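#struct-pred
JK: can someone run the complex with 2'-deoxycytidine-5'-monophosphate? inputs below
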Amino acid sequence: MRPVPVIAIDGPSASGKGTVAARVAAALGWHYLDSGALYRLTALAAIQHGVPLDDESAIAAIAASLDVAFLEGMILLEGDDATELIRAEVIGEGASKVAVLPTVRTALLQRQRDFAREPGLVADGRDMGSVVFPGAQLKIFLTASAEERANRRYKQLIAKGEETTISQILLDIEQRDARDRTRPIAPLQQTADALLLDTTEMSVEKAVQVVLDGWREASLG
Ligand code: DC
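RT: done, structure tokens with the ligand placed:
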């Protein structure tokens, strides 16, 4: 039996990998895994239950029994709509903190692998190609300069009515990058077999096309 095809898209915070991954999945008619959402949901559940974000055993227990449902365009946590809530900056920050805890990562591993179902999966995160789906047929490392990512995030937050400044966002992005890249377990990295896709000066449409072309080539070879 052939393995379920997987396209792994990893990259830093606010690089646009989620948008690109979701559009590639839609174009191919495949499933989509936003692995960052699982870390965000774990952080949110911990905060809602009053658990400190450095209490590893308690957070790992939360991650292992996370009651989530990914519906069409909606994410439920313990039955409540958490779609918008998990996108808050404070939850992204919390996600990055719980993501350094090894037993939390282990608790979420199988849950992520379960998303690989026919006809295929596009998964985005930090360690999709390196740890969760090392056998992925196509691996992409999608990035953009920190300034461009701060710019993109600023526009999103302003559109949502949040008050912030580009310099504050840039600082947050740089801190998050440093934490995600330097943690000992499953750090953000470009694996040797991943294609580098720098979208600093590239539209979303073009980035989607590059991934689809990459898949066409990988599936032929
Ligand atoms: O992609 P995101 O911004 O939603 O991810 C939030 C945090 O979750 C990120 O800072 C690090 C962590 N994360 C991770 O460690 N591994 C993943 N595969 C996805 C996210």
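RT: quick notes.
The first strand starts at residue 6 and ends at 10.
The CA atoms of residues 148 and 200 lie 6 Å apart.
JK: thanks, will look after standup
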